[in-house]
Model the fold of this input.
Amino acid sequence: MPRLSAFRGRIPAALLVAAAFTGLAALSFTAPASAQDPAATVMSACSKCHNTQRICANLGVKDKTAWNTTVTRMMGKGAQVSEADKPAVVEWLAAQQAGAKPVCQ
Ligand code: HEC
Done:
């Protein structure tokens, strides 16, 4: 029966395509485009020249605008923060309460 075998042949192909799309969707969810955790960025990039006590002293003091100025200045000195990660870093710093961990140990 040629028709039946042709039908049978199509099912695995369709399943394969569906599986491939499912795989792609899963990948795009687990790997967002720009993906550095701002806390991790601050703890690594901002502790190269001074310890994080300097940052701790300003948590709850500087607002978003002030942190943007500071981070821009630190990047000018050589802080390894990408332009893509910068807004999230500024946002994160501005949202931290005075004395918050991990910046303040
Ligand atoms: C290349 C070295 C270097 C790196 C990396 C660095 N800093 Fe600094 N930072 C300095 C120096 C030098 C000073 C003291 C002189 C000054 O304030 O300009 C300072 C001072 C500061 C101060 C106190 C002065 C102020 O403006 O409030 C804060 C807060 C600060 N840094 C935050 C950060 C943050 C946040 C990062 C990460 C984005 C960072 N630093 C990374 C060199 C660095």
Summary: Residues 45-46, 48-50, 54-55, 58, 70-71, 74, 77-79, 81 surround heme C (CB under 6 Å).
